[in-house]
Specification:
Elements: E1 14-18, E2 21-25, H1 27-32, E3 37-40, H2 45-63, H3 69-78, H4 83-92, H5 150-163, E4 167-170, E5 182-186, E6 196-200, H6 204-209, E7 235-236, H7 241-245, E8 250-256, E9 261-268, E10 271-272, E11 285-288, E12 299-302, H8 315-318, E13 331-332, H9 335-342, H10 344-347, E14 354-363, E15 368-378, H11 391-420, H12 434-438, H13 443-455, H14 460-484, H15 489-492, H16 505-519
Parallel strand pairs: 7-10
Antiparallel strand pairs: 1-2, 1-3, 4-5, 6-14, 8-9, 11-12, 11-13, 14-15
Helix pairs in contact: 2-5, 11-14, 11-16, 13-14, 14-16
Length: 531
């Protein structure tokens, strides 16, 4: 059954949080009222990130990129987006945001599966089990998932383009690369290959502005909805940030029964040769020395989030404001965060900046979603300052390094106790490691310190000392529990490789306290000259 229209400019589909509570708004209202909206609903992190990037692309196409810091400052200080420009843009491109129009939004008009078989709408939700895609802990399957409302389908369309798993996709009629009704070799959606770090402001307006890049615009850079799409895809690089943010990694068409979306075709889409570090605003990069067959002088790889690892533990990468020359052990923070460092004077030292960190862990050749990683970290804006030698940044980086040293000290204590008992240490990457388990205990004190330093950045010395005292006490208590639970044989100890004397329980204890003291040397608020 043909559905006449569902235009996202006029119909509600974006779930947001306002000062009065949750709401669902149209695309026009999301931007026109962005100053009074706190943010996009965060119940589904993958959809949240996808919608923020979509809204960013829309506002960039409406207003263009600010060419200078002064222009960016002028826009930010207005506190809202220009309503006249929003209305004029949506009047001009109104038909491009209709799910069922001549140019269906984020779809290919007339797309047909070469097999003639349409698939379950579960293909638009990679966390739901469908076919060979069986995610861990999935409570729904393609057989039990109800049809999507048009609003839900719009959100899933945007999210699918960002996060869709890799592997085989339905072959589309007119796709020359399709064979035997399928297309192989598809990578994940572009965000599936990154660890997203999205700066969050006090309102939707500020969140979007914090990601608006400063620099020249290109007439060749246009978002997906301003192009007509066919089943044929290509591998190429984006012309600019608007094309990157709306990258059509799949060719999709929705099937409606007139009231809901009951089926879908998801086929192969465009492939990035590599994610361009000079365009991608929401990813941290690791500098990698080029190999012998690499034609470029410097290679940068996106840093992905690790499951079970809190975002604050990556503080050294998050606060790495420098652009490096290719040393393999160096990081560069995201373009958006580096730019915040340029304008931190406008924001003020006490601006309540959060960074939303989201990623996906894929399994089985990246064709299955095993885990969704989502965390948020408060970041003192002064630590992003581009001023050389920022003490607050230095201390926050050291905080993460000291936490890792404590983790290692606890793991080494456990290993030495086992050796003193006559056994072997638990292999790295397997089994239960007390230091690794302990790190979750540091989330609360670490986030508490970060929140305090957002409001009072001058208290960084006191904050670091207080954090070290808490860690010393909690790590010491765990160490005593490990020592108390050691077997009696550990008292006499055992001979181990690399030591002239037997390794005794007392030796394991002394080694631990020495390592802990080295990791946490400043647990008092002594004047600097006395430390």
């Amino acid at each position: 059954m043909k559905t006449s229209s569902y235009n996202l400019i006029d119909r509600t589909f974006i779930r947001v949080v306002t000062k009065d509570g949750p709401a669902i708004v149209t695309l026009r209202d999301a931007l026109a009222q962005a100053d009074s909206i706190i943010g996009v609903d965060s119940s589904s992190p993958l959809e949240t990130v996808a919608l923020y990037r979509f809204l960013l692309a829309v506002i960039l196409d409406i207003a263009g990129l600010p060419p200078t810091i002064d222009e960016w400052r002028a826009r930010f200080e207005t506190g809202h987006f220009d309503h006249d420009r929003i209305d004029s843009y949506f009047d001009r491109y109104h038909d491009r945001f209709d799910l069922f129009g001549e140019h269906p939004f984020y779809q290919v008009a007339g797309l047909e599966p070469s097999s003639g078989i349409w698939k379950s709408v579960a293909l638009l939700r990679p966390e739901v089990a469908s076919g060979n895609n069986v995610p861990l802990f999935s409570s729904e399957t393609d057989a039990t998932l109800p049809p999507f409302t048009f609003a839900e389908a719009a959100v899933h369309l945007v999210s699918c383009m960002c996060w869709d798993p890799a592997a085989i996709k339905t072959g589309a009629v007119g796709d020359p690369a399709a064979k035997a009704g399928k297309t192989t070799g598809n990578p994940t959606g572009p965000l599936g290959q990154l660890g997203v770090t999205l700066p969050m402001g006090r309102s939707l307006f500020e969140t979007l502005m914090l990601s608006v890049p400063i620099g020249p615009s290109s007439d060749e850079d246009i978002p997906a909805w301003r192009r007509d799409w066919g089943p044929q895809w290509s591998q190429h690089q984006p012309k600019g940030i608007k094309e990157l943010l709306t990258w059509q990694s799949r060719r999709i068409r929705l099937q409606s029964d007139g009231n809901t979306i009951v089926a879908v075709t998801v086929s192969a889409g465009d492939r990035l040769e590599f994610t361009p570090p000079d365009l991608e605003p929401h990813c941290i990069w690791r500098q990698v020395k080029p190999g012998p067959k690499t034609t470029v002088s410097v290679s940068q790889r996106p840093v992905r989030h690790q499951p079970g690892r809190s975002a604050w533990r990556g503080m050294n990468a998050l606060l790495s404001m420098e652009e490096h020359d290719g040393n393999s052990d160096e990081f560069s923070t995201s373009l958006a965060l580096r730019q915040i460092g340029w304008v931190h004077g406008l924001l003020g030292d006490t601006y309540p900046l959060d960074v939303l960190c989201v990623g996906v862990l894929y399994g089985n050749q990246s064709a299955v979603v095993e885990d969704v990683i989502a965390d948020s970290i408060p970041v003192p804006v002064r630590a992003l300052s581009d001023a050389d030698g920022t003490p607050l940044r230095r201390d926050l980086v050291e905080l993460a390094e000291r936490a890792e040293a404590v983790r290692k000290a606890l793991n080494d204590l456990d290993a030495n106790i086992r050796r003193a008992e006559g056994g072997d240490a638990v292999p790295w990457g397997a089994g239960n490691h007390p230091g690794d388990n302990y790190m979750s205990q540091l989330d609360t004190p670490t986030l508490r310190v970060l929140h305090v330093l957002q409001k009072e950045p001058d208290l960084y010395e006191e904050g670091m000392a207080a954090w070290q005292r808490v860690v010393w006490d909690s790590a010491g208590q765990l160490a005593e529990q490990l020592l108390d639970s050691a077997a009696p044989s550990a008292v006499a100890g055992r001979q181990v490789k690399g030591r002239n004397q037997p390794l005794r329980l007392s030796d394991a204890q002394a080694i631990f306290w020495g390592a802990l003291n080295k990791a946490l040397p400043d647990r008092t608020n002594r004047p600097k000259e006395e430390q």
